[in-house]
Specification:
By secondary structure, this protein is mainly β. Helix content is 0%, strand content 57%. The protein is built from no helices and 11 strands. Strand 4 and strand 5 (46-51) form a beta hairpin. The N and C termini lie far apart (40 Å).
Length: 116
């Protein structure tokens, strides 16, 4: 079992920045790939960024150059640094962990609202 708790969401003006955190507990040593997803009202959940156990990363085209995913394995935490935020980035952001052997866990989500 792995528990994921996101934090860091909030209201920010266009062009601003936020840093999301996702802290893992439980069998965190078995976590491999960690990802951030988001879901806007009326839309499907979409992948934002992913970081593997070897720290390789991938991003959705819509956030490349603006967002950065990182992880601190000692702290069992993954981060999402979001810069140059746009109103279309408004969504609930979810953390997802792939855990050996074949389990997937989700956090409860944190709201990010970009508005003036």
């Amino acid at each position: 079992q792995v528990q994921l708790v996101e934090s860091g969401g909030g209201l920010v003006q266009p062009g601003g920045s936020l840093r999301l955190s996702c802290a893992a507990s439980g069998s965190a040593s078995l976590i491999r790939t960690m990802s951030w997803y988001r879901q806007a009202p009326g839309k499907e959940r979409e992948l934002v960024a992913v970081i593997s156990s070897d720290f390789s990363t991938n991003y959705a085209d819509s956030v490349k150059g603006r967002f950065a995913i990182s992880r601190d394995n000692a702290a069992n935490t993954v981060y999402l640094q979001m810069n140059s935020l746009k109103p279309e980035d408004t969504a609930v952001y979810y953390c997802r962990a792939f855990v050996l052997p074949t389990y997937t866990y989700w956090g409860q989500g944190t709201q990010v609202t970009v508005s003036s």
